[in-house]
Write a structure and sequence with these properties.
By secondary structure, the protein is α+β, with helices and mostly antiparallel strands. The strands form 8 sheets. Strands 2, 3, 4, 5, 8, 17 and 18 form a 7-stranded mixed sheet that branches. The chain has a 6-stranded antiparallel sheet with strand order 11-10-9-22-21-20, sandwiched between helices. The model is unreliable at 589-601 (pLDDT under 50).
Length: 707
């Protein structure tokens, strides 16, 4: 009996415990669902749902004429959700019916796999129920358009499982053109360069958001849960593609021909400060030249003789000298506090300040600066500061290492030789853009303009901000000083002994400027013989009387360079650029000034079309008395041309008269008639071996003598 009670007691206790546990479980279920339901649902969503950013479309960088310099094109990553309901309904009949035609279409479009390989891949992913299978990465927009019309894909995302992820790829349609200035746009925007870095916040826009659900090891986008991005703004640069192309070609030609290390060419619009072109080329390890660094804005070097303009301006403005003052250069070599400064040509004695400038005497400017500023060095450095040569140029682009370096009087690095060395371009570090801005102020009648690269900011084609020219210094010197300085700059080219005369004088327009040849240390091994190389510079503007463009060219030569001097290297680049710009923008006809009234009569004979083209190009008045025919007799007098058909139309078996014709026309005419032509001399035909009017046979030889 006792045993029975003991067993029943235990059974009842277990029953009560089970009931209590059941009640506890039931209470917990109610508590989780009703009391803490929102918390647990939110926690579950946080583990499986998250917002991921959607990149905005990056803005485009344009030239001022509307050409695209840097833009974004869409590329697409293709994913497939093989567990999509529409794809698997009715035992996957939709997938099975379309897999063959889809595989064929994919193989045809991409050409990287056969139809059988694509079918095998698709079927395996379908069996494995892949939720976010990467089918293809970085396909173009045209491929994307074609893919959307493929079997199965065209039925939409829910039925096909195809998911398209859009990204942007940055391209520069002009490739090398101003590449370092336009810049590079990378995924890590902190590694951007050029305008892509400077204006990154405007260009990148505002990212959107997309809700993604984590499932089967991958995040899948939740349909309809997106916050659209705000696309980036467009920027319009001051770059002119034609001028940029001219500058880069001229610079490239000299670097290659002279085996130079690197160089830059900057073209600035004189009246506004707009940078119309900035070419930067450096030699790579493979020997090719690319835009590897912004040498024009970021490279600081000792400027050499182009800095003498600042010294001259200071001396004239302080009225210590005028350009007719006499300075003794003491044979072209002089010691200054134990250090020797010499000219490139020895033997000279007394000369005017003007001649010292256009012959680029180092001794003259070192001596004058030391004479007047040695005991008041701050007065000289204050001039340099007033000329903005020791400060950042203000150009609207981020460039490393671009701040000039000038030592201060009384500072750690200031010595007795600082003034004479600074006076002729040593002991300071200046960027080309600073020098171009300074020279441009002289060209612009003393008004210094801020150099700039961006003229407008646009949003969907509407200008939301226009950047206007900005004056940095209203007048950097007096009109009297300005007139003297301009006379000296013009003499550098015009004077028979000017350092740029031989290279730049032969133009139909006037050039003002200054050459510079600075000695640089090879691999920082000092300036000893064998270690030094030369930096060639030319800073100037044209036309001298009414300047439109200011151009600065700085080229670092190598120890293998054939040419080293500023005029021979950078001066030639300057002239090639200025010739092209003058012809294209400033003169309807570059050669028009060569056509002067001439009372002599000239007779020619040639093709009608060629003559007409020449007259249009030369803007010469002409008349044509005949309406048909291929050839014309031509008479020119007093810049007036009269064309007429040959007086006698000779039969094809009769020798024509080719006297006075150019070689091209004479050979064309004779060989089309069946002659075999031989030629001696150059110029125009002055004699032909067969008399005009004589009969001939095809294949007969005729000899032409040119003058």
């Amino acid at each position: 009996m006792e045993i029975k009670k003991d067993i029943l007691w235990r059974v009842h206790l277990c029953f009560l415990l089970i009931c209590a546990l059941g009640i506890l479980v039931l209470w917990k279920v109610v508590s989780i669902q009703q009391v803490h339901g929102k918390y647990w649902v939110g926690l579950g969503d946080s583990l499986h749902l998250k917002y991921l950013p959607i990149d905005a479309e990056r803005g485009t960088i344009y030239s001022e004429d509307g050409s695209m310099l840097s833009t974004s094109v869409p590329i697409f990553d293709i994913y497939v959700d093989f567990n999509a309901e529409g794809l698997r309904e009715k035992n996957g009949v939709r997938f099975k019916e379309n897999v063959d035609s889809l595989s064929y279409s994919l193989a045809t479009l991409f050409g990287d796999k056969s139809k059988a390989e694509y079918k095998k891949i698709l079927q395996q992913a379908y069996r494995d129920k892949e939720r976010y299978y990467l089918l293809k990465r970085k396909i173009s927009f045209s491929q994307f358009q074609a893919l959307r019309e493929f079997p199965l894909v065209r039925q939409g995302r829910n039925k096909s499982g195809f998911i398209f992820e859009t990204r942007d790829k940055r391209i520069n349609p002009y490739v090398l053109l101003a590449n370092r200035t336009i810049g590079l746009s990378r995924e890590d925007s902190t590694k951007n360069v050029g305008l892509e870095l400077t204006y990154n916040n405007l260009l990148k826009g505002v990212s959107g958001q997309r809700l993604m659900r984590y499932s089967a090891g991958a995040y899948l986008p939740v349909e309809g849960a997106e916050l659209d991005p705000v696309n980036g703004k467009n920027i319009v640069t001051t770059i002119d593609p034609y001028i940029q192309d001219v500058a880069e070609n001229a610079l490239m030609k000299m670097l290659v021909d002279n085996n130079s290390t690197h160089g830059t060419a900057i073209v600035m619009e004189t009246s506004t400060g707009k940078i119309r072109a900035i070419a930067n080329l450096g030699k790579g390890e493979d020997g090719t030249y690319t835009e590897d660094f912004n040498y024009g804005i970021g490279k600081r070097t000792e400027p050499g003789s182009v800095f003498k303009l600042a010294t001259l301006l200071s001396l004239l403005e302080d009225k210590y000298v005028d350009i007719n003052s006499i300075v003794d250069v003491e044979g072209g070599a002089k010691y200054f506090y134990g250090l020797r400064i010499k000219d490139s040509h020895l033997g000279a004695r007394e000369m005017t300040v003007k001649k010292a400038f256009y012959t680029s005497s180092n001794v003259a400017f070192a001596k004058l600066a030391d004479q007047f500023y040695h005991n008041q060095p701050k007065k000289f450095t204050d001039h340099i500061h007033a000329f903005k040569l020791d400060t950042l140029s203000g150009v609207d682009i981020v460039a490393s290492s671009g701040k000039p370096v000038f030592y201060k009087p009384g500072g750690k690095y200031w010595h007795a030789t600082s003034i004479p060395y600074m006076a002729h371009g040593y002991g300071e570090l200046v960027t080309p853009i600073n020098l171009v801005t300074f020279y441009n102020a002289i060209a612009n009648n003393g008004k210094m303009m801020r150099p700039y690269l961006v003229s407008a900011i646009e949003d969907y084609g509407v200008t939301i901000k226009k950047i206007e020219p900005e004056v940095l210094v209203e007048k950097i010197c007096s009109n009297e000083t300005l007139a003297q300085v301009k006379e000296c700059l013009k003499a550098v080219v015009d004077s028979a002994h000017g350092t740029a005369h031989r290279v730049c004088y032969d133009t139909l327009y006037s050039i003002s400027g200054k050459t510079g040849t600075a000695v640089s240390a090879l691999n920082n091994k000092g300036y000893n013989k064998g270690n030094k190389i030369y930096q060639a510079s030319f800073m100037g503007f044209f036309p001298s009387e009414n300047p439109k463009y200011t151009i600065g060219v700085v080229i670092q030569n190598s120890n293998e360079s054939r040419l080293v001097y500023g005029a021979d290297v950078s001066g030639r680049v300057f002239k090639e650029i200025s010739d092209r710009l003058y012809n294209h923008f400033l003169s309807k006809n570059m050669f028009a000034s060569r056509i002067n009234p001439d009372t002599l009569t000239y007779n020619y004979y040639g093709r009608r079309s060629d003559m007409s083209s020449i007259f249009r190009y030369l803007d010469m008045t002409s008349t044509d008395s005949s309406s048909g025919g291929y050839w014309r007799d031509l008479q020119v007098r007093n810049n007036y041309a009269i064309m007429k058909a040959p007086s006698v139309e000779l039969p094809k078996s009769v020798t024509p008269n080719v006297l006075g014709m150019g070689l091209k026309d004479a050979v064309y005419l004779l060989e089309n008639m069946g002659f075999i032509t031989s030629v001696s001399g150059r110029g125009k035909v002055i004699n032909q071996s067969l008399v005009a009017g004589a009969t001939f046979k095809k294949g007969q030889h005729i000899n032409l003598v040119l003058n």
